[in-house]
Batch of 3 targets.
Target 1
Amino acid sequence: MKDDISRNIRALYGQIADACEAYNRDTDDITVVAVSKQHSAAALKTAVAAGIHNIGESRIQEAEPKLTEVGHIATFHMVGHLQTNKVKKAVQLFDVIQSVDSLKLAEEISHQAGLVDRTIECLIEVNCSGESQKYGVAPEACLELVKKVNGLPHIELTGLMTIGPFTDDEEQVRSAFAACRDLFKQGQDLVGREFDVLSMGMSDDFAEAIAEGSTMVRIGTSIFGSRED
Ligand SMILES: *Cc1c(COP(=O)(O)O)cnc(C)c1O
């Protein structure tokens, strides 16, 4: 397992370098978040030992024992949907919350972070594909939410996150990512230079995301292997 994970990470870096070459991007501008959901604490530790600095998890219940066991060996990102009643735990466990999609959720994050005297880095999740089963704020409501969340005291708003459409149609994938990049640029005009994270691209679509300006890819399967879901 250990060897597989290290080998997968090396192969992934190669593929990211190829995509950067093809689309005129700088590899230094792409951060890899290894999404270890449904994989063990040992697998997570192996990825960090192999050079990964950012780890993503999507469920509080699963992440709590795992992240507690391994200790703070990487920057921890919450990438899954977050319920208001789990925010207190999320603020204790994570450095970055990528799935902020309502003002109510953002206010609770700011409140809970304030109670423990912290500022938590957040991204706004946008539903750029328009698929109804997805979480995320609608594109037309995104910038209003960016403005409001940016005004909260214990949140450092640094960018946007999106999940690409569930399709093999490359045109469709790229146009959803391009729409998110346009919103990101407009958000940057509102917030300033510190708004510099565009989290898009997963195992199946990171090359398209890099083509459209992603600065952060969230990779599960290509690093850790397949999952139940
Ligand atoms: C699971 C997950 C990923 C990783 O997906 P893979 O297709 O396994 O790379 C990325 N982002 C989010 C939000 C996820 O839930």
Target 2
Amino acid sequence: MAFVNENFLSLASGYLFPEIARRTKAWQDKNPGQKVLRLGIGNTTEAITPHIAKAMHDKIDLLSRRETYTGYGDEQGDTALRTALRDFYRSEYGVVLEADDFFISDGAKSDAANIQELFSPSMVVAVQDPAYPVYVDSNVVGGRSTGYNGTNYDGFVYLESNSSNGFIPDVPQGKVDLIYLCFPNNPTGAVITRSQLKRFVDYALENRSVIIYDAAYADYIREPGYVRTIYEIEGASRCAIEINSFSKNAGFTGVRLGWAVVPRTVESENGGPGTIHRLWNRRQCTFFNGASNIAQAGGLAALSPEGRAECRKLVDYYLGNADIIKKGLESIGLVCYGGVNSPYIWARCPHGMTSWEFFDYLLEHAHVVVTPGSGFGPAGEGYVRVSSYGHREDVVAAVESIKEHVHG
Ligand SMILES: *Cc1c(COP(=O)(O)O)cnc(C)c1O
């Protein structure tokens, strides 16, 4: 008799995006012919840029000839790409890492979900609240929660991010073992300064915990003083794993390519020096056959000077959208956070509405779809996330419609 993994049954049903789709469809059925304007999704919309697209075309040409065909590559990723990432961290961030600290993957979400496998099921996990759902869900499946209590998961430590702490939570009160951090943050758009992140690194070193740092939006940071990689902080290479991706800066959401930095120097209580690095290598070699060689050719091109210039322009485009959204919402009196150094605007619902009430209001009156903040954790209640991913003309139309129909 086959029993399913009980931990999977502990997951609360994936409610947020299906419910958005359900309500949007219900509205469309009631209002045939009316156009829905979408500011809800975290999915890129602009084309892959020419230099990067050409590199992928060229790779397909190589694969199309017997003489230059290649099959499986290294599970850890192509040496050229790992080396280019090492060089990029050095030139862009002034951070010294080894090429074999970089593990290429099919995206940051998989790495964010899989990394918990390295740690004992008894580990106490801290997450930001609100947060990108994969950190919590993967640890529920990893058996680190005793269940959903209707608000959140028992056993996890929720680090509340709110307007009084500028959406930068304090370090945990007691001792935790794993800490998930994401900056620039999805969904709040918050960015973290060196001194703020240093407190987490110092906490981790003191408590011998490991930080899993999601830097997927690092390229959106345009103002000085904010952390783009956790290894900018002294001591981080002893206590931090970083995950990142080409999804949001090169438009690879569909192409699929990411990386994890797992330095040899990251420490654990058991197994001796380098164990976490060695086990991640072991895990990837057994459970993963490497990222697509076409995608990796694109990633390598994205790190070249031409590729970097193209990615910068692409990110500029979305930041331009973010600016239009933020200014538009503020012009009608809505209180907004993020939207600078980040593609997300975290807007407070007016008149004390809940996240879902404001969602319904925007859909009904402005025909605009946003993401209810409560879907990212209890501390997200009373907010909505507005995304700058969209064609400029659609973003402008959505903002105009909100300005016409909503009063802050
Ligand atoms: C979009 C996003 C990622 C990227 O995920 P991929 O799997 O690389 O596409 C990672 N973390 C966060 C917080 C994101 O919003």
Target 3
Amino acid sequence: MTTIDTVAAPPLGGPSLPQERRLVTSIPGPRSQELLARKSAAVAAGVGHTAPIEAVAAGGGVIVDADGNSLIDLGSGIAVTTVGNAHPKVVAAVQAQVAQFTHTCFMISPYDSYVSVAEALNRITPGDHEKKSALFNSGAEAVENAIKIARKFTKKQAVVAFDHGYHGRTNLTMALTAKAMPYKSGFGPFAGEIYRAPLSYPFRDGLSGADAAKKAISVIEKQVGADNLAAVIIEPIQGEGGFIVPADGFLPALVEWCRQNGVVFIADEIQTGFARTGAMFASELFGIVPDLITTAKGIAGGLPLAAVTGRAEIMDASHAGGLGGTYGGNPVACAAAVASIDVFEHEGLIERAQQVGAILTGRLTALQAEDPRLGDVRGHGAMIAAEFVNAQTGEPDAALTAAVAKSCIAEGVIVLTCGTYGNVIRFLPPLSIPDALLHEGLDVVAAALASA
Ligand SMILES: *Cc1c(COP(=O)(O)O)cnc(C)c1O
């Protein structure tokens, strides 16, 4: 573990809510229960929820519910509110834009903020080659468009995704996503020409990066063939799949193979992007320069926005009118993104993510030393996972994981689970969380594990 001097969290985020865990009712309290009853009557059953609360305010490191409980937020709405919830600069930019105009459709009447977001993405994404960007509404939509662009450019069709990969819930992205339950079961048929290769998963495969890459490339060459392959898409660190960090050398070998074989390498940085991993983009941690990169989640401080950014010659392969959408690059979301990117670049958030990572890793590895059920602690920056196993067999322990997560939420700490085997708790705090609150959240996790 790298030692980093503890520095106070930057003065970031939201309404000036007291930065404390405060439980004034059991979770859920009566008002939250009322909303949840209305939810189950009015909202489709397929739309689940993790924390049974009615959120009414959020900022710094807390989410406040309708009953007056203040919960520690270790999830950032799935790595979205990285700059902090309702960051003052984001709020000001959104308020100014929403009073000016809310929509023209960029494909009808272009505006500055869309172009400014594209310019910023072209500048801050890895590589100093000429780049272009296109904006969309959601991560899944960005992934769909990256695949469209790669197919158009290469005039090939096949796409390779990886074991444990997650790329979204639309039809093409369900095909790319690995896990059947809950993402795919019953929702087929899925898009064609999608193939799956084995990932480097050091905790479970024990392979070096080079050997894992050899194995993946062999599957790709034998089962797909470079002549048919338009793109390889991979999360540099897997998100939903369990924060799996590939062994050193795995990603560079894949990029190299793609270069030699006329295959577009797409890094899906929707979860890992924007300072989350202690680098602006996780690709930098592995020394790779993707041809295309998809972004969303952290990009706009909570407003819906997504992008594909990449080599200009690839991005320009599509005829005019082939890319876009009614809302893609909405001016309010773009104003929020311009403000958020300014915060990422100028408020020390990369360093803050490294500090948060050092706290998380330090606390969790100390816990692991005392408890063999905590099989693996991994990740980078403010994207750290704890994988829970049966202490005797090393088998994934989803029941233990669910029990720990449930009791954390009951005690006022929002944690998210993930992993193909459902046995990972992922820590994705907003970077505006004060250190003391992060420590308190981890105290609650430790107590939940001890009593599980
Ligand atoms: C969340 C996520 C997506 C899908 O993004 P949505 O905005 O939910 O459509 C795609 N890829 C990765 C890596 C993600 O984490």
